[in-house]
Amino acid sequence: MIELKGLKKNFGRLTVLDDLDLEIPSGQATGIVGPNGSGKTTTIKSILGLVKPTDGEIRIDGELVNNRWEYREKIGYMPQVARYPENMTVEELFRFIKNIRGDQPSNEEELIKHFGLESELKKRMRTLSGGNRQKVGAVLSMMFNPDILIFDEPTAGLDPRSSVQFKKKVRELKDQGKTIMLTTHIMSEIEELADHLIFIVEGKIKYHGPMDELLNEHKEQRLEGAVAKMMEEEAA
Ligand code: ADP
Question: Where are the domains of the chain?
Answer without folding.
Answer: 2-235
